[in-house]
Amino acid sequence: MEAGMETPRSADPCTPPPCDVVTVPARQGLEAVDILRRGPGDAVGPVLHDDGGDTLGFVVPAGTAAAWDVPGSTCTGTDGRGLRLAPQPPVEGSDWLVPPGEADLATDPAVLRRALGEAARMIEAADSCC
């Protein structure tokens, strides 16, 4: 190699890509996980749950937070900071419902949006029938 030539830098293959997290109430999130698992392929990415069992967090691709508009949920951008996709949960007081390695790197936001809508309709129907 000639002196002075720069070599291109490659991304560290051990560093996961940045991601965002969609947080939903646990009941709706559990229904959505079931819906996603019944779908074709591996539609669900890693999912966190809090120890209190109140919420679930779906890992979605970075940039999702900018356009997320699903009522009853929030989407937080992490810019790759503070969220490790490792066997140990990234947040104290949480655990993996669907751990990394058993799922795709992230859930497709459009697929998640449909699953959350279907889950909300199922819950509403179940609550209103009795």
Your description of this structure?
- With 130 residues, this protein is α+β, with helices and mostly antiparallel strands.
- Helices cover 25% and strands 21% of the residues.
- The chain is built from 2 helices and 5 strands.
- Strands 4-1-3-2-5 form a 5-stranded antiparallel beta sheet.
- Strand 2 and strand 3 (55-61) form a beta hairpin.
- Helix 1 (26-38) packs across helix 2.
- The longest helix has 20 residues, at 109-128.
- 29% of the residues are buried.
- Mean pLDDT is 80; it is low at 1-14.
Low-confidence stretches: 1-14
What summary fits the major beta sheet?
A: 5 strands, antiparallel
As a percent range, the share of helical residues equals 25-40%
Q: Helix/strand/pairing class, anyone? A: alpha+beta
- As a whole number of angstroms, the C-alpha radius of gyration is 17 Å
Query: Which strands sit side by side, in order, in the main sheet?
Result: 4-1-3-2-5
Describe, in short, the structure shown.
With about 130 residues, the chain is α+β, with helices and mostly antiparallel strands.
